[in-house]
Every structure is written in C-alpha cells, then in structure tokens.
Design goal:
This protein has 430 residues and is mainly α. It is built from 21 helices and six strands.
C-alpha cells in the first residue's frame, strides 16, 4: 500500500474537512451518534458527555474493525478515517479555535493512518513467518457470499418462499453468466462477472417484491419533514461544505484509498472494480431511508451522505478530478432533495422498509463471511488449530464484559494468531 503525495494530501483533506463538519455539528459518520447530537446542540447534555458517547460508539469499530481489515489490503475501510473524524471533531472545543484544531488533528491523523498501515505491513514482511498472504483470505468468502444478501433481505421482508425463489433465481443467474458471460461483439471481448451479474439479478428481485407492497393513507415521512423543517434548513445552509466533503470522499474513493465497507473492499482487493461499485450502490440503497430520516429529525447529515459518493469514485477512478466534481454535485443534490425524496418514500412503503432489511441482511452476510474467511486464514497460518482458534476466540469473546464488535473478532483473532506463531517460531516451539 504505497501512497503518492497527492493521495496523502487528498486523505488529509478528508480528515480535516470531516472533523470540522463534526466539530460544527453539521454531520457525523456514525449513524448511532446522529440521534445524540441534537441533545448537545440543544443544551440537554454537556460536551463531555457527547465526547464520551462518541468515543464509546466509534473507537471499538476503528481499532477492532476498520484498521485490522485494512492491514495489507489494497484499500482502507472508511471507518478507519471517518469514525475518527467523529471523535476528533467532538473532542475539540466548540469554538473557532476548536474548528482549526479539529481540522489540523483530522489531517494529521488521516496521514498517520495511511503511513502507519504501510509501516505495519513492512514490519509483518520482516517476520520469520509472514502471514500477510494468509490475512488476505479473510475477505475471500465475501465476494461470492455477497450475492446472497438480496435473498436474505427478501426473506426478512416477505417471508421464506420469496427468499427461496430469489436465492434460486440468483443462483441460476450466477451459473448462466459463469457459463455464457464471456463473448465477443464487433471484435471486442466482453466478460461479465458472474458474481456481479448474480448480485444484480438478486437486487432486481428484491426491488420488485418491495415495489409490490401497497401503501396506505399514512404520510409518516411527510409529517416528519413538516415538523422538523427548521432542522432540514440547517442542513441545507451547510450544503456547500457538505458538497466539498462529498467531492473529497469521491476523490479518495477514485484514488482507491477508501472503501465504504468490507464487502466492496474485498472486491477491490481482487481488482473487481465494477462489482465493487455495484456492492457499494446496493449498500447505499439500504442506507438512504436511514440517513435521510435521521437527518431530518436531528438536523445532522452524514459525513459521506448516503455513501453514493463512493460509487461515483469507483465509476470515475481513472479520472479522479472528475470524480471530485461529480461527487460534490451528488452530495449537493442529496442535501437539496432531502425533503422531496423523504416525502416520496411514503408512496412506496415497501421500498422504504426495504432499507432496514438490506442493512440487517448485509450485517448478517458480512459477519458470517468474515468469520469463515478468518477461519480459513487461521488454518493456513497454523494448520490443524486455525479453526479451533477462531471459533474459540469468537465464542469466548461473547462472554466478555466488554466484547469486541463481532465483525472485528475474526480479523483480530487472525492477527493475534500470526503474531503468536512468530513468537513460538523465535523460541523454537513452531
């Protein structure tokens, strides 16, 4: 993972602007932190209490999920940077000096993560038992496992029969594109990814079933927009700062510095950029209802918006400057259409509810895929005890008073096992 000067400047800008937006109470990355922000902004809790909440919600995901999965990868998981912006922005003072300080610390931290991860990789490469190649196996199951998430989402929303039918059609799509997905048209060789096309088939089924759900006379979202009009206007007043942040996130996505989550990261690590864009788009669909509705109620937007700006970056990865411009335009459009899109969800209640089921199914599939991948990686590092190590680590972690985030357990177990094997090698027991 080598970084150019321009890339380091780009990621520093993301960290700086992101931390400033959090410091000013305009946006945060952690969805769990967003509902707490108005409590501080309206004087019901202190800055110290808000800082403690931000640290509790974000620190574990940074050190236990974002950074371990980013070690040795082609691209860093966004949580490593953007969740830290939440902590930095809130822990710095709520005044003009705090704005400057948050920007400076955010920039330094972001550069430090990039260079620090490279340093860790260099150190691991010097170990007598190099386990970096094995560590890459953690993400391998994610690529094919991801295609099943639409079926799981359909099952949560519509029941077993439709889940099975979606899974069967997705599998048929995979087999057909694996067999007939490579062909030549007008002397051009075209190769369609079976995983990407199967995912697309599953997503179409998911949207089809959701769109068939009939709406009633409810106007839940429209009521929210009317009740919290002042908070919506607060977000719109900061549209240019948010657009700048959207452009910067799209830029670092195009430069293959940040991926929105572990699923697209695994695809990008394999050079499957189109599939990574599809996976990112699918994730964004699931987060649109959540981000928009919580933004309206709280008056605080997302640092990466609905995360569609990451899709923009992957689409325009060959022209990063264009990715910046389009990403800024997408974020600006999100903010200005906040009320319109949210109200329109009342007309398609099935699609609105689909977002929650997408997020749940993504977490389920991702968690299982990472656990399986971690077990495979550990078994390659230490044949015979790898599965024992990961499964034991995972189940015992559940009993801890302060357990690691479950998504992080597998990768952390792999890294600890790799270090332990090297220690045993040095003392002659391995």
């Amino acid at each position: 993972m080598e970084f150019t000067i321009f890339q380091l400047i780009s990621i520093a800008a993301v960290g700086a602007v992101g931390s400033i937006l959090v410091n000013r109470g305009v946006a945060v990355f952690n969805d769990g932190l967003r509902p707490i922000m108005p409590e501080y902004l309206e004087g019901r809790i202190t800055r110290k209490e808000l800082a403690a909440a931000s640290f509790a919600l974000s620190f574990g995901l940074i050190v236990g999920f974002g950074i371990p999965l980013s070690i040795g990868a082609v691209i860093i998981i966004a949580h490593s940077i953007l969740l830290a912006c939440d902590i930095i922005g809130i822990w710095t003072p709520d005044n003009r000096k705090g704005v400057i300080l948050s920007g400076v610390i955010g920039a330094i931290y972001s550069i430090g993560v990039c260079l620090g991860l490279q340093f860790v990789v260099d150190v691991f490469n010097q170990l007598p038992v190099n386990f970096l190649d094995s560590l890459s196996l953690v993400g391998n199951p994610i690529i094919i496992a991801f295609t099943v998430f639409p079926s799981v989402a359909v099952g949560y929303q519509h029941g077993l029969k439709k889940a099975v039918s979606t899974a069967v059609i997705t599998l048929i799509g995979y087999l057909l594109f694996a067999k007939f997905g490579s062909f030549t048209v007008a002397s051009y060789d075209i190769s369609l990814s079976p995983e990407g096309m199967a995912l697309l088939v599953g997503m179409l089924m998911m949207v089809y079933y959701a769109a068939k759900v009939k709406g009633g006379e409810e106007s839940t979202n429209a009521d929210l927009v009317n009740i919290f009009a002042e908070r919506v206007n607060k977000i719109k007043k900061n549209r240019w700062l948010l657009a700048l942040m959207g452009g910067l996130v799209a830029l670092v996505s195009a430069e293959l510095i940040l991926a929105v989550d572990a699923m697209p990261q695994a695809l990008i690590n394999q050079g499957k950029y189109t599939e990574g864009a599809i996976a990112t788009f699918a994730r964004a669909i699931g987060f649109i209802p959540l981000v928009f509705s919580t933004a309206i109620v709280t008056g605080v937007y997302g640092l990466a918006g609905t995360t569609l700006v990451f899709v923009v970056g992957l689409i325009f990865r060959d022209i990063p400057i264009l990715a910046f411009v389009v990403g800024a335009a997408v974020m600006y459009a999100e903010v200005m259409l906040l009320s319109v899109v949210t109200k329109s969800m009342d007309k398609l209640p099935g699609v609105r509810e689909m977002g929650e089921h997408i997020r749940t199914s993504l977490a389920d599939v991702l968690g299982m895929a990472i656990l399986v991948g971690s077990a495979m990686a550990s078994e390659q590092i230490a044949p015979g005890i790898g599965f024992f190590w990961v499964m034991g680590f995972y189940l015992i972690n559940r009993m801890a008073k302060k357990p690691l985030v479950e998504l992080a357990v597998g990768p952390v177990a792999v890294i600890i096992l790799g270090i332990l094997v090297n220690v045993l090698h040095l003392i002659g027991l391995w």
